[in-house]
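S.,

Sequence below, as promised.
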Amino acid sequence: MKLRGYIALFLICLTLLLLDVVQRFVVAPWVKLRPDRRKVVLGRWQRFLARFILFMVSRVGGAVIPALPRIQGSAGTLVLMNHQSVLDIPLVVASIETAYPRIITRTRYERWIPLISHMTRLYQYPTVDPSANPGEMRRMLANIKKAARDADVPMAIFPEGTRSKDGSIGSFRTTGLKLLLKSRPWTVHLLVVDGFWQRAKLKDFLGGMAAIRGKMTHAGSVEWTDPRSDPDPFIDRIREQMERTLEEMRAPAPI
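The prediction came back faster than expected:
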């Protein structure tokens, strides 16, 4: 029902505008005053925001949001997920317990988006702009490498780099992922989602959130122990593992 989608989207946007003020004038000053509580406070705040969005999309908008995996997040945890919709970030955030993920995201999200733009700075998200000139790109990649090496929280990346148009797992843009793998050892968690791609953007929600029949699964974890080794075979292996998982999720239920 389209009306439910309109109502849910209106309430989400209105609430995020209000929570942007809370984040700027309560949460951010608090973690500056209490840096020893930074990870705890920011983790709880981010999970609250993610679960609020998923709750509104589900209970008000009528979407089916699956039970989420539970990943114990810590330094040295790297989360990879295929990319289908704007709900992917809330899904990743809500799946990680005990810590917040530092997510590699696009530079365009740093400006003019209530709550989100301030969050990219507050949570120190590394950003990348595929259209950047070579000098800017080198600087961005250096920032990603440094963020990965120094991170005391989990890192997360969508290795396709862009949302899938048909829900299948596209080619990986491996530059950022290789930088992460060459920076340190990781426990790599693989998440796979499906059923979100037909409502990939906010404007698509106006066509009815009830069309979303989401699925999500933890496709396993893999240890990456030697940052000096060639990451290409490892990347090929985890991509194949994610593709197999998506095929299994799409297979008809046995009669």
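The chain has a mean pLDDT of 92.

Coffee later?
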